[in-house]
Amino acid sequence: MTAPSPAPAGSRTAPPLLRATGLTCAIGRHVVLRDVDVTIEAGETVGIVGPNGAGKSTLLRILAGVRPPAAGTVELDGVALGSLSRRERARRVALVAQEEDLPAELRVGELVALGLLPHRPPWAGGGKAEARAVDAALAAVDMAGTADRPLDHLSGGERRRALLARGLVQDTELLVLDEPTNHLDVRHRLDLLGLVRGLGRTVLMALHDLDLAVRFCDRLVLVHDGTARSAAPDPAVLGAVFGVAATPVRHPVTGETHLLFDRHPEVP
């Protein structure tokens, strides 16, 4: 992972696609995070990492505009997310949550087609073009031919991939993913993150696996001790936050840097 090159002197820098300023994130009366400033440039893949219960999902939902902050502002391309209608927000931001309560009788293709609703005229039905878009999204997540399967016939990993297909077909400026690799086997974790990385879209995702976060994200936002801040993938920093010893190693075949973890010698 490399830091972006500095802009030439005197050049104009485009404003960030997403800017959050002075956020206080709360669940009811319980404040989870304070004084959070986050910026995401167009085309970046940014990972949100932190210990369990640190507030990653809460922050993600506020940055996606589905939960209001207790204080502070979130802007998409200079426009306050809270000022957008649900339909307009859904045309610009797609959120794939960790878990969703979906009707068991809903079929896979119907689920994926829900991602097209924000772009349809009112009361319009699907057509051949929409069916092709659904099939293409399912093929992208290795689920070709499953459009007619009921959701209750899917494994946990297949449901995750179907939900990602819905997010892909939504075709938004910003794709927000909450733990997208949950329930996935090793191959599909790598395939899914490789797919997301190659979309050419702006992606914000919470990841539990630090090695995958370092490998597939341009940079990280570290959620810890009641706040969130941008962080380089420094093994010492990550190790201190998670209470482990993190050692970078080079893969003997690909040459990529991976992290190995062990218990921190100073943590009982």
UniProtKB/TrEMBL annotation:
Signal peptide: none annotated. It holds the Pfam family ABC_tran. Residues 18-250 form the ABC transporter domain. InterPro entries: AAA+_ATPase (IPR003593), ABC_transporter-like_ATP-bd (IPR003439), ABC_transporter-like_CS (IPR017871), P-loop_NTPase (IPR027417). The keyword DNA damage does not apply. Keywords: ATP-binding, Nucleotide-binding. PROSITE patterns: ABC_TRANSPORTER_1 (PS00211), ABC_TRANSPORTER_2 (PS50893). GO terms for molecular function: ATP binding; ATP hydrolysis activity. This is ABC transporter ATP-binding protein. It comes from Pseudonocardia sulfidoxydans NBRC 16205.
